[in-house]
Structure formats: structure tokens, C-alpha cells
Amino acid sequence: MYEIAIIGGGPAGASAAIFAAKAGKKTLVIDSDQSVTKRAWILNHYGVAEISGPDLVAVGKQQATQLGAEIVAAKATKLIAGDEGITIETDGETYVASHVIIATGMFLDVAEASGVRTKPGTEPRIKTIVDCSSDGRTSIDNIWAAGTVAGVSMHTIVTAGDGAKVAINVVSELNGERYVDHDVLKA
Ligand SMILES: Cc1cc2nc3c(=O)[nH]c(=O)nc-3n(C[C@H](O)[C@H](O)[C@H](O)COP(=O)(O)OP(=O)(O)OC[C@H]3O[C@@H](n4cnc5c(N)ncnc54)[C@H](O)[C@@H]3O)c2cc1C
Fold first, then answer.
1. Does the beta carbon of 98 lie inside 6 Å of ligand 1?
2. What integer pLDDT is reported at residue 65 of this predicted model?
3. Ligand 1 within 6 A of 34 CB?
4. What is the reported pTM?
């Protein structure tokens, strides 16, 4: 049983996993390795002079793993809400988590197959998105959405930021108080 499972390991999903794992939550990332970010050359990601999309995705996953997140290469096919949590069916194993964050980029199939409400997208080239509130809640309790699939601007700094925002909201919900993750520069 995981506390937080994240579908998608691109900037939004891996960033969410970094915050969730660093908060000490039992965190799983399920990723099918089809990130559009892997086609990018990035010069506009704050704090990073320039980086290739493949490198940004790889570093993000390394950070999440180093902080304790488990990453499995698989395709999630359906989410089923139940009394014991959210069951995640994949093209391999089945998993259970208290909370699930959908961070599947331009892919809506698992959200639609799970009955999560969607709506037309508003960003360029984005046809459909998950219908979620500003804090990332979807139409199904304990299922959240972050990044491109949640309708934010399709830029790595924004999708990574949105993944972090939603993970902090889920951690805060699990902790019953607002969560802050600050490390201090050693003197
Ligand atoms: C050609 C190109 C150039 C770009 N250049 C820039 C740029 O210069 N600067 C910039 O800021 N942004 C750029 N972008 C945009 C950037 O890549 C995206 O905005 C953004 O980072 C997407 O992040 P995401 O995490 O929402 O989605 P993605 O990075 O697409 O990640 C989604 C992940 O979810 C996984 N997934 C989907 N469905 C499932 C499922 N059912 N089960 C398991 N895993 C699943 C996918 O395999 C993927 O790994 C570019 C995009 C493209 C296509």
C-alpha cells in the first residue's frame, strides 16, 4: 500500500515524486516513458542555463529515486476507487495507494478509463484536459492531477512547479496541516 502514487514520470510527475518522497511518504511512480519533454532543448527553465529534454527527465527521476520514490516502467490503464484506497491497474502489476496524482502529459486515456471528468483544453495543441480545481483535485476523491494534463501552460518550469504544488497539497492532506519543505544552507 503506497501513500502517494503518481502516474507519469515527466517534469510534473517526477517533481511531485521528489516532494512526496522527501516528505517521507511511501511514493510510487508508474511511467510509460513517452514524455514529450524528451524532444525538447530547454533554455527557459529557471536556474538551469540549458539542458536537453532527455537529461531533464533523467535527472528528475534520479532525484526522486535518491529521495526514496519507487519508479516502475509500466502503463497505468485504470484507477478504481475503493474503501481500501485507489487500485491502479497497469499492463503489468496492480498497485494500491491512498492518493493518486495523474501527471500523464498529453495522454488522457487512463483518466478517461477511470471516469475522471475531463474538459476541453485551453493551451495550444492541447485538446482535452482533466477537469480539476486549482489545488489539483479531480472529480474523484483522492485522485489529483498535475502538469499538462491539468491544463497548466506547457512549459517544464510550470509543469514541474504544478507537480510540486499538488504533491504539497496531498502531503498536507495526509499530515492534516500545511506542509513546508525547506532545507537550510549549512554555515
Ligand atoms: C518539441 C518540444 C519542445 C519543447 N521545448 C520546450 C522548451 O524549450 N521549454 C519548455 O519549458 N518546455 C518545452 N516543451 C514542453 C515540455 O516538454 C512540456 O511542457 C512539459 O514539460 C510536459 O510535462 P508533463 O510532465 O506534464 O508531461 P510529459 O513530459 O509528457 O510527461 C508525461 C509522462 O506521463 C507518462 N504517461 C502518460 N500516460 C501514462 C500511463 N497511462 N501510464 C504510465 N505513464 C504514463 C508518459 O510516458 C510521460 O513520461 C517542449 C515540448 C516539445 C514537444
1. no
2. 98
3. yes
4. 0.98
Using pLDDT thresholds of 50, 70 and 90, give the confidence band for residue 187: confident
Write down all domains in the chain, each with its CATH number in brackets.
2-175 (3.50.50.60)
Percent of the chain clearing pLDDT 70 (strictly above)? 100
Q: Are β-strands 94-102 and 143-145 bridged in parallel, bridged antiparallel, or unpaired?
A: parallel
Length of the chain: 187
CB-facing half-sphere around the CA of 27: CA atoms within 13 A: 31
The answer to whether 136 and 150 are in contact (CB under 8 A) is yes
In DSSP terms, 89 is beta-bridged to 78, 94
Q: Is any atom of ligand 1 closer than 6 Å to the C-beta of 150?
A: no
What are 147-175's pLDDT values in tens digits? 999 999 999 999 999 999 999 999 999 99
- Residue 178: CB atoms within 10 A of its CB come to 10
In this structure, the residue with its CA closest to atom 6 of ligand 1 is 40
